[in-house]
Design goal:
The chain has 390 residues and is α/β, with parallel strands linked by helices. The protein has 15 helices and 13 strands. It has an eight-stranded parallel beta barrel with strand order 1-2-6-9-10-11-12-13, surrounded by five helices.
Length: 390
């Protein structure tokens, strides 16, 4: 039987009521809630929430009861969102309901994307070849950032025992990610955007050098390319085969190519460390998407350390979904869970028939995740039931 979940925010569960949410979702064939347990800032227009129509959540907080004893002596620690104390622990409420026969519980856990922590700990963020910080992304090479993520996942999984953990952003955050009022007058080409997201922080330079990679040489070459791009009167591609070739577009420059290949090591080893602290009975899933290689994700290398993948096909044309899911299955293998992630946003999904076509095209996946409970009109949740019934 396919496992079907909907991503949800804790404030929506509070305003709608957990029992109401569960009943509504059950009515459209959804048997699990993927609750945000660690999340970043944003401005959310919420047609599905009757009380908070526009909401600004606290930046970089967690939505569960934090045990300070667990974090004694840690350099980077999670901050419990105020609404947990003020409005209740919605994760605990879901787990309690599950234990009494209710829906499954999945913890949607944002790992390294955290501007609040980046501002507090600039020595642990992703840095460009120029040394400029990306405050919104902690670096997976940083020991302190790694300890923060593994500690958070361990706390969630040991104290709440959800059915599964969904890992979002355990990798290098790219340059263009929707930071507040981003300015770009070039405009930045795809290759430049990628190179601006390649991290050369001290942690990466040290870790890569210890692995036998010429990190300093790679940084010097990327710096040269970026300076050339920023100096041009008008944008001009230096690597016209990028992004079609991905990392292979830089094969003619072995020092950079080697460094780009190395970038998957911190990500893979971080996921492995996370898996090691998750107790038996709690499944670990990686939220993935096409092009995740740009953040250092090597899916084939990660597979041994996860129980499955949620492959998000938000913007994938319907005619490509079958091949994309088949490719994900080929990498994942037959024994591990492949979940297709779809959003309910219009016009990316035109109507209920379009969603039904996407679900059908996904073929033999093991389940579905739909985005997002509070961010769409209530009537749009009915699209899920219609798509599953088809």
């Amino acid at each position: 039987m396919r496992e079907v979940s909907v991503w949800a925010y804790p404030w929506d569960l509070h305003d709608l009521g957990v029992d109401t949410v569960v009943a509504t979702l059950a009515g459209v064939g959804v048997g699990m809630v993927s609750l945000a347990t660690s999340y970043h800032a944003g401005r959310f227009l919420q047609p599905g929430n009757p009380k908070r129509r526009v909401y600004f959540p606290e930046d970089g907080t967690v939505y569960y009861k934090v045990d300070p004893v667990r974090w004694a002596g840690a350099e980077i620690v999670p901050l419990e969102a105020r609404i947990v104390a003020e409005e209740g622990d919605q994760l605990a409420a879901l787990v309690d309901l599950r234990d009494r026969g209710g829906p499954g519980v999945s913890c949607w856990t944002v790992c390294l994307h955290n501007t609040r922590l980046g501002m507090l700990h600039p020595e642990h963020v992703v840095r460009t070849a120029h040394g400029d910080p990306h405050y919104y992304g902690l670096c997976p090479s940083s020991p302190a950032a790694r300890a923060y993520v593994t500690g958070m996942v361990r706390e969630i999984s040991e104290r709440y025992r959800p059915d599964r953990i969904e890992l979002e952003s355990p990798d290098f955050m790219g340059f263009s990610h929707g930071y507040h009022h981003e300015k770009d007058g070039l405009p930045v080409l795809r290759e430049d955007d990628f190179l601006l997201g390649v991290c050369f922080c001290d942690h990466c330079l040290t870790r890569a050098t210890m692995a036998g990679v010429d990190a300093t040489g790679a940084r010097a070459m990327v710096l040269k390319w970026l300076d050339a791009a920023l100096a041009r009167e008008l944008p001009e591609a230096q690597f016209p085969d990028f992004p079609a070739l991905g990392i292979a577009a830089f094969a003619g420059f072995p020092v950079v190519h080697d460094y780009l290949l190395w970038r998957s090591e911190p990500v893979t080893s971080l996921v492995a460390e996370i898996k090691a602290v998750v107790p038996e009975g709690v499944r670990l899933l990686l939220i993935d998407f096409e092009g995740s290689w740009s953040g250092g994700v090597d899916v084939a290398a990660v597979v041994p350390f996860v129980d499955g993948i949620v492959h998000c096909a938000y913007f994938t044309p319907v005619e490509r979904i079958a091949s994309v899911m088949a490719g994900a299955r080929a990498v994942l293998g037959p024994e591990k869970t492949l979940t297709a992630g779809f959003q309910l946003f219009h016009p990316n999904v035109k109507d209920r028939d379009d969603l039904a076509a996407r679900v059908k095209a996904a073929g033999g996946v093991d389940g579905f995740n739909f985005y997002n409970l509070g961010l769409v009109p209530p009537k749009r949740l009915e699209w899920i039931g219609a798509a599953l019934a088809g």
